[in-house]
Amino acid sequence: MDKFDERKVFDTIPELFDRWRLKYTPELFAFLVSRCSLREGTRCLEIGPGTGQATDFALDAGCDYTAIELGSNFAGVLRRKYGNRPNFKLINGDFELHPFASESFDFVYSAATIQWIDPEIAFSKCFDILKPGGHLAMFLLHGDYQTPNPALYADIQKVYDEHYRTDAPYRQRFPYLDAPKYGFESEERFSFPSARRYTADEYVEYIHTHSDHIMLREECKEAFYGGIRDAIVRHGNKIEFRDEFILYLCRKGYGTGKQGVSPRGFATIIYRGTEAMHESKGHRSGWRDNPPGRQISSRATTCRQVAWRTLGVHRRQNRAGRNP
After folding, report:
1. Domain assignment of residue 26, given as a range
2. Element (H, E) at 111
């Protein structure tokens, strides 16, 4: 049995995700429309839109919108919501592997998705597919419930200490400020404050949509969720958040080409693309046929050779002052 792809964990709960995941703030969207000059005809790509938490603003601005969504259940929700919009296009596929044309988008953005992608691939590929002058926007939520209700926070931490056991802890730590290392310029950070409140039952439903909670061990669920609910009820049956929606915005400068792409990231993209090509052609000489500790698979060898030969050409051409 193949290992479960943790990037698809949210796709197992599409209805719950659509009901409870936050839609960000109108101020953030209005800022992006103004700052990035989003309008009719702007070629826009959203990476991993989920069920459309940050999709409407781009469609409403008139953008020529494309979504690439890995999850098939999420893709179904998106088609039902937006399939009748003339400026909506959906690719049900993997951003890391999909062969986008270079310099094909004016605006690329991710709403709490890009952290699930290897930074080398994320930044390098976004740089490659953006047109000169185009923007990359990455935004996420920082939710604080300790400050408005410290006593409740302390009680909830006790529940986590006693009952929280998961086989897939959240480990994503994305280096949002590393964009200039990959050729981007003028990276900026913006903050948009907000607030929200839940009852005990609502909050329990909401945290069911967290990736590590989805993978909570079955024997722990009843005690864990019951403990969270009881703690909130004891504190007036409400939990408040002081939120901060954080936006990282950077631009691909004019006169830049693929020299801004990290060579190692470029090689990684080539490697994974070649691997996908082999899979599609039925080359299955991987670990299934060659147990660990024996010989390296011919598929893996071929993919590495293509990747590193490409990297060598990339470096030689850059030293010669040419873009590959």
Report:
1. 6-144+172-196+241-256
2. strand 105-111
List all residues 6 or more positions away from 130 whose beta carbon is below 8 Å from its beta carbon.
Answer: 103, 105, 106, 108, 136, 252
The CATH number linked to 132 is: 3.40.50.150
Residues 22 and 82 in one domain: yes
CB within 8 Å of 289: residues ≥ 6 apart: 297
Q: Note whether 285 and 246 are same-domain residues.
A: no
Cα–Cα distances (Å) from 311 to 175, 270, 277, 314, 317, in that order, read 23, 9, 18, 5, 10
pLDDT tens digits for range 212-262: 898 899 999 999 999 999 999 999 999 999 999 999 999 999 876 544 444
User: What DSSP element (H or E) covers 68?
Assistant: strand 64-69
CB-based contacts of 147: which residues, under 8 Å, 6+ apart?
A: 242
Output the pTM of the full model. Answer: 0.78
Average pLDDT of the chain to the nearest whole number: 83
Rounded Cα gap, residues 138 and 111, in angstroms: 6
Residue (of 240, 242, 235) closest to 151 by Cα position: 235
Instruction: Centre a 10 Å sphere on the Cβ of residue 209 and count the other Cβ atoms it contains.
Output: 18
- Find out whether 290 and 318 touch, Cβ atoms under 8 Å: no
Residues 245 and 301 in one domain: no
One domain for residues 53 and 107:
yes
